[in-house]
Structure formats: structure tokens, C-alpha cells
Amino acid sequence: MKLSPEDKVLIQGINEPLAAVHAVRMKAYGTNVVAGVSPGEGGQTLDGIPIFDLVEQAVSEMGTIATTMIFVPPYLALDAALEAIAADIHQIIIITQGVPPLDMVCLLRKAEATNTLVVGPNSLGIIVPGKILLGTYPVEFYSHGSVGMISRSDTLTSEVALELTKAELGQSICVSIGNDTIIGSSLLEWLTILNEDKNTKAIVLVSQIDDGIEETAVQYIKEKLEKPVIAYVAGRLGPPRKRQLHASDLIVSLPILGTDPESTESIIASFRQAKIPIADRPSQVPELIKKALKIKT
Fold it and tell me: Where do the CoA-binding domain residues begin and end (predicted)?
């Protein structure tokens, strides 16, 4: 994963309302947003960012682009991502929510064949505080430091980051891996990336009780990870409740309409067995980080 302020960034669907707002914010933060794509609107500009009809036109004019961000409607996300891969862009962040699961299956097959990293869909993106913003993060909650964050819950990501910032524990990188039914890069992949990141000294996992993705990473954390890990699992202390599903979720998850207490306890037990501290609330995360890093309070 290449993340530096000099790397060129493209925004697909730049004239979508959400993209138009955050393109300006990303550029103001220092992200090198060099172009946008919006079919039929080529030749226009947004805050000095040139807009093209096609990705290949943007690459031809602007040169090699490291990362593209996709804000297009869900049914167009697959075509947008494939167009980016065809233009030799191999870091894709999908902000769009509700991408059809079968479209994601097709995209992930193509991504694997072309060594492309996909983040999302339904993602806040990635932020390296003080350096680069690739997404829709409220930047005032984040500060530069050495705590890496991997999250499946958008709002809680910022809440935990704010608690860390107030405790003078800045973040090295925060990645929202997405919260749709099928996502791109996994928790395990990002644990590996942050384990190799020299700027990250500790890792915070922010997830939800119905994710089911943590258990696949616990063994890696236990056996391979060299850095302390803190977990915050939202909703684990609440009563069993029904999941709020998107229509697309029902296609693949119809039998799973509620939170299984036994599954929740299994996830928690896996964390405890691996000696991963679990915060009961976001405000407890800084205390656990300081303890793990042996920082005097």
C-alpha cells in the first residue's frame, strides 16, 4: 500500500454530492487530488480539479495515478473499479454503500488477478493524520501519532480516534475496511500491513458483534503480530437484537436475522484467549493503549 502526499489521487463520480464536498476537503488537507471522472461532464473543473469523461483520459493527461476513490451509485461501482484497473490503477477505495454482492465477487476476482488492493465498499476510506486524507473522515478528531486503527464501524472509528486524540495518543493510520456484505481487503490483510508499518506501535480494532471477522485474525495476532492490539467490540454488552439489514444483505444472509449470544461470547472468548484486551467503552481505549505501551499516566 503506497500512501504519501505526493501520490496522485483520482475521484470517480466527482460530481456526486458527497464526492463534491469531500474532494474539496481532501485537497485542502493536502491530498494530491489531480483529477475527477464524471461521464458527460468532461472539461469542467471542481475547485481547480479537472474533470474527465473517462479514467483513461485522466491518466493520459495526468500521468500515473496511485489511488482512485469511487463515489458513483452502487450499480455503477463495478464498472468504475474495472475501468480504473484497466487504466493501471491498483489501489481502489470504494466509499459507495450497498454495492451488489455479486458485483463485489466479480471485482475481487479481478483484483486478485491484477494485484489490486480494494478497500470498502461502504467505507470512510483511509487517513494518515497530518499527511493524507482519502475519504470522508471528520479530520478534527484525528491527530498524528503511532496508534493504527482498523475499523468496520464508521461512526465509532471517529469516536475512538477522538478519545485517543484527547489522551495525546495520535494515530499513524486509520482504515475503514467497509461494512457491506462483501468487502475487499480483510482485517487480516490490514493487520499484516500495520504489523510491518514502522510508524505504528500499537493497533486498535473497532468492530461490531455481528461482524464475525475477528476470529479469523485472532490466531494471526496470537502467533505472528509483534505489536500490542486493543479491541473495542460495539454492542457486546447489549441485549440480543435484530440486525439492520440492507436488501442486498437479505439475499445472502436471510437465515441470520439476529445476534447470536453464543457467537458473541465465542468472539470475546477468542480475544481473551489470545490475551487481547477488550475495552468496554471508547473512553477506555487510551488507558489500555498506554498500559500496553507502558506509558506512564
Answer: 2-99
